[in-house]
Specification:
The protein is mostly helical and 318 residues long. The chain has two domains: 8-59; 75-310, MetI-like fold, CATH 1.10.3720.10. It has helices at 8-59, 76-80, 85-115, 123-131, 138-149, 155-160, 174-202, 206-214, 219-248, 254-259, 271-281, 285-310; strands spanning 62-64, 70-72. Helix 4 crosses helix 7 (174-202) and helix 7 (174-202) packs across helix 9. The longest helix has 52 residues, at 8-59.
Length: 318
């Protein structure tokens, strides 16, 4: 009697088939779960961001008043920008604000992250104190700072009175208003950026720092050659995110609207505030839509250039 047996490889494949099918089923379930978690944000972005952007691009070719009357004007709204002095002044203010706010906020938040990186007694309270401004409404933040900085009667004026600065109008002087706005913005956002840097620092392997210390590297050398290279993707995210926020974020409108409404003498009139004025003060909806598309295009180009030059924060890699 002859008994035939399946080759070992065939038997092994038959035994592995159910496990492979189970693995595929598990991966499919995980993929479905991931899509389910992403779906709400994706739908929200499509409805509240992508769709309004498409509509704004279409409205930019019309003259639209506050009563919903549409008149096709082609590229007239875009041609109008060339001679709009207030637009160029707003772009200049926004540019000064971005190049001032972004590096200062970066340095301050990174220094705070390094300060609270190590655990010590009360570290949770310290981190919460730094992050607390970020959970407060920007309108409330603006009102608080307005109360502190009100001319001659504000709390800060009284504190500075012994130094001869009690009569200084930080929000009413054109040369000081934008700088004051930058300081308040940094104070508001430093806690959030600190947490982002802390998350990046958590990913730095402690073994690499210990090895560098054993090899005789100083604190600066450990930071320069171990910590900083590994933090470049995080740093890139902070720079891009803060740049976009400085141009179009809430602090670019809510805060300046509550504090100064663009004054004094248009010294704090950002481009987002100018777009708001064109749309809801002067009822130039078509022109405001055209301005929005230009601002978005500028941001896309700048972000693309930053990605291209730094490879998404990995510009030190070959």
């Amino acid at each position: 009697m002859v008994t035939t047996t399946a080759p070992p490889t065939t038997a092994r494949k038959k035994a592995q088939a159910p496990r492979a099918k189970a693995g595929m089923t598990r991966k499919r379930r995980e993929a479905l779960a991931a899509y389910a978690f992403l779906a709400p944000d994706t739908i929200g972005l499509l409805i509240f961001v992508a769709l309004p952007m498409v509509l704004a691009f279409g409205v930019a070719f019309f003259k639209v008043d506050g009563f919903g009357n549409y008149q096709y004007v082609g590229l007239a709204n875009y041609k109008l920008m060339a001679g709009d002095d207030q637009l160029w002044a707003s772009l200049r203010v926004t540019g000064i604000y971005v190049v001032t706010f972004v590096p200062i906020a970066f340095v301050v938040s990174f220094a705070l992250a390094m300060l609270v990186r190590n655990h010590f007694k009360g570290i949770g309270w310290v981190r919460s104190a730094f992050f607390l401004p970020n959970v407060v409404s920007l309108v409330v933040v603006g009102l608080i700072w307005q109360f502190l900085l009100v001319d001659k009667r504000g709390a800060l004026s009284k504190l500075l009175a012994p130094f001869g600065l009690g009569d200084v109008s930080f929000l009413g002087t054109p040369s000081l208003a934008l700088g004051t706005y930058v300081v308040i913005s940094v104070w508001f956002l430093m806690g959030y950026q600190m947490l982002v840097f802390l998350a990046g620092l958590k990913d730095v392997p402690k073994e690499l720092e210990d090895a560098a210390q054993i090899d005789g590297a100083s604190s600066w050398q450990r930071f320069r050659y171990v910590i900083w290279p590994l933090l470049r993707p995080t740093s890139f995210f902070v720079v891009v995110n803060s740049t976009i926020g400085a141009v179009t974020g809430l602090q670019a409108f809510d805060l300046v609207f509550v504090l100064t409404k663009g004054g004094p003498a248009r010294a704090t009139s950002t481009v987002v505030l100018y777009i708001y004025e064109q749309a809801f003060t002067f009822n130039n909806m078509g022109y405001a839509a055209a301005l929005t598309t230009v601002v978005v295009a500028i941001l896309v180009i700048c972000t693309g250039l930053m990605f291209g030059f730094t490879r998404g924060g990995r510009f030190d890699e070959d």
